[in-house]
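Hi there,

I know you've been waiting on this one. I reran it after we fixed the sequence typo, so this is the corrected version. Both the input and the resulting structure follow.
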Amino acid sequence: MAVPKSKITAMKRGHRRSGHAKEHVVYVEDKKTGELHRPHHIDLKSGTYRGRQVLEPKDDF
């Protein structure tokens, strides 16, 4: 039967579980429109990415 040789300390357990936390969603504000969008993603409302028009803008913009 598998039995641990010694107790796993809270610090070791915490280091193992350090990657289990959920990521916080970060938003940045567009300089021209003031809309919030994810960094390194296309702003879907205006259709721009890094100052260039990539998609057609939505009608309600």
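Quick highlight: The chain has a mean pLDDT of 88.

Best,
R. S.
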